[in-house]
Amino acid sequence: MVTSRMKSRKLKLIKSTLLSTALVMVLALVSCSRGDDPSLSLVSIPQQTVAPSPVESSDGPIEITQEPVEPVEPVESVEPTSVPMLVVEPLTRGVDQKTVQIGIIKTGDVFKDVEVGVEARIRRLELDQVTDVRRIEIIETIDDGGKKQNALAAAKTMVEKGAFAVILASVAADTEVTDYLAEQNVPFFGWGFLDGFCYPNQWGFSFNGCLKGHALGISGTSLDTGSIRLAEIFYGREPEVILVTTSDDAGIATEFLTQQVWGNKLLSVVKIPTGQEIDVADYVLAEIADLDPDMLWLSIGLEQTLQVKARLVSSFQGMVVDDVTYLPGILREYEVSKNLEGGYVFTQFPPQEEYREATTRLATDLQNIGGPLIYSQAVSLGYWSVDLFMQIVAEVGEKLDTRTFFNVAKVQGILYDPKVSGGPCPMSTSFVHQNPSGGMALLQVRGGVYHPVVNFNCPNLD
Known about the structure:
By secondary structure, the chain is of the alpha/beta class. The chain has 14 helices and 14 strands. It has helices at 4-22, 25-29, 114-128, 148-160, 175-183, 213-216, 226-235, 249-262, 280-287, 302-315, 334-340, 357-368, 377-396, 402-412, and strands spanning 99-106, 135-143, 165-169, 188-190, 204-206, 241-246, 266-272, 295-298, 319-322, 344-347, 415-416, 427-428, 440-446, 449-457.
């Protein structure tokens, strides 16, 4: 049996390379406001699977006697239509007839190899030998070290060096950074967990849309219903869920968004007390003892999830799922793999383990540049971010400047479509600052390996 001391030692060994990657998962997937971390190929046919059997009551449906979840007050709405029309100067910074220059700003301990994904996608463009599309040149990659002042300095450096656009893979890029890029008419691309990928900023373009719309109170924003969609595919019905989250502002935001998505299928919210020495698994099990949900959803960060998930999986008869532990490479650590065995995880990135067209193409492109066999979420982020940029540039055509780019990407809008099965979801770039794309997959750890149980799929647009 693994002792808590052994677990602690293992956690310290992997913390520098794995914990930081997961710091943004919860941000992106649910509340987008947690500091400890976190969709359209139309709906793919999911793999058939057997759902865990919930405990049956001989007396029929179990009556819930616990107090219902109290609604959380939403934040004040912000109307996207209230954003004033922008005056965009036709700047040709970083552009000539054959090339367009971009920069990369990253938080290195979180998105270590994002530039590898960018380079792999650029290499595919070169190998395809398309003659009527500009080549993309990376002028510099800057690691901001997760510090806001460094992220702002990096943004200013990119403007000074003539970058037309920026791949922004930073946890430190607050609104001061993204507002600066917008003021300079620099489009930026990445994973849409930052405020700057949502209104009122109109220069951030994420391959999975604005993930913080509801948290920011943007009027008319669509909910990201990926979690309940995948759970319904898995069970063949809408299951009932208990959310386990934290007793802080991030937990409040997580609770609010989960209520909006799950409605009366959210039976209860268990909030882990702060500042108390407790056994989290014991606390959760005691809180849910009188309830009979299908799912137990952990939204408590990577380190705490690794500490409690094995115990909950062994003690709870339904599905124990989280939104942070799909980290390619993490299962090579035996103790970590053991702690996650039998559990489930949501991911907003197309999982490499599906071996569908999107992920096999990415793997082939990595091979072309001598890249890794197992690629990280950072690689995927870089790859699909520059893929979106390429599609917009191609649509703009010969006369590329900041004004024509903004007109095509934001005013007119294009349908971003990777055109590969299992890839990021098609979505209109006109609405990219308002809505999430909703793409998501569900995996289970079995035998120390991630197994897709519901393939990456997207909301039905019909």
